Amino acid sequence: MLRQIRRVRTRAGARWLALSQVACAVVTPAVAHAATTVRVAPPGINPNGPSQQPSLSASGRFVAFSSQASNLGPAVGTGRESNVYVFDRLTGRIMLISSGIGGAPANGNSTNPSISGDGQVVAFASTATNLVGGTSKAVNEIFVRVGSGPIRRLTVGFGGVEPDSDSAQPVVSGNGRYVGFTSDADNLVAGDDNGASDVFEFDLLTGAFYRVSVTSRGGQARGASYNPSISADGHLISFTSGARSLVKGLRNRVPNVFIHDVYTGRTSLMSVSGRGKQQNASVPAPFTQFSDLSGDGHYVVFDSNATNLVPGVGNGHTAVFRHDLTARRTQLVSRTSRGKEANNDSFEPATSGDGSVTAFETFADNLGSPWAPGPNIFTWNALTFTPTTVDVTASGGSRGPELERQLLQRPAVSADGHVVAFVSGANNLVGGDYNGAEDVFLRITP
Description:
This protein is an all-beta fold. It has a single domain (15-444), classed as 6 Propeller (Neuraminidase). It has no helices and 29 strands. The chain has strands at residues 22-24, 36-39, 51-56, 62-67, 83-88, 93-96, 110-115, 121-126, 141-146, 151-153, 167-172, 178-183, 198-203, 209-211, 225-230, 236-241, 256-261, 267-269, 291-293, 299-304, 319-324, 329-332, 346-351, 357-362, 376-381, 386-389, 412-413, 419-424, 439-444. The strands form seven sheets. It has a five-stranded antiparallel β-sheet with strand order 1-6-5-4-3, with no helix packed on it. A four-stranded antiparallel β-sheet has the order 2-29-28-27, with no helix packed on it. A four-stranded antiparallel β-sheet has the order 7-8-9-10, with no helix packed on it. Strand 17 and strand 18 (267-269) form a beta hairpin. It is globular. The relative contact order is 0.13.
């Protein structure tokens, strides 16, 4: 089964659309003059359903997200299903992405959006059968929409047949050409008989379709692969896999992070120390290990319970690390400004285009202030080695209590590192928030 991102953790351009499809919202400059927090919602509207799963364009101008709210704009959803939207901070417009044929409401949930660097390509997963013609099987599939154009289905089985199982976790390259995703289907490419989930890449320009969770010689993974991330040009994809057959000499018997180079066909192990030592632990079940590639492909950040990746690190909690592919150096990210490791779990990182800013969620209470009970969102700056609290009020104060005591999420970071998107049910991050639901927020820094 495909891994789900949200779980209960038991341990402590204006060309987007016709006006009939948009709703005006407060215009927010693409780059703020001072750090501030804003909510992704039209002015005066308290979304009447939860919003989540944000994805950011390179500058943070465009925000893709999913929501069950039915009041984000005219004819933009029924509230019965989760839909995917894009919000333009510069023009203040919001667009429904997951619309059915002829503008009809989608008849299934649409989730997990991923947006390109220019904000014009959005991939998402959906169980809806009325997004494109010829879809009859209600499995989770991967779709893509370019600007205001028609929706395109990517998960078509080999020979044009319906996929025989679910697909999820789409990721779009920064240039908008490539889409990576995970699938349990075994009929997307010929010869897929490993009986496990795999990671694929689709070239929107040529229509070429690759399975990337393979060995450097193209052999199948003998185990499940999932949680992909993609570089800006699409030639590198990182993913997690429990397969021990992907690289030679793998002996640690835990799931690991790998990178596949589509240009060379090479698959490499990434969850290693600076000296190439294999991690001695991954992330304990039922959780799964996440990685994220910097846009330039120079860094991969990942979470791990390993105690042998960085000297002196390993207190029994999940930590976030950054591996430099060029210098072959591994650093601890979930640390205080003095280098002390976080005193509780830190996980599901996302990083900026050059890898200098990494955001993650953490239960630790020693990384900095303000701090609020429950998990918080922090960023770590590789230039200053400084952690900064992200889920704060517009003035930088501590957030209020969450609706969910253990709200688990993966934050998003713009390529330029100036915007971080996160989800919160706190009602004091912005004024006038009284909807009693989780919303998507942006923390914008100069």
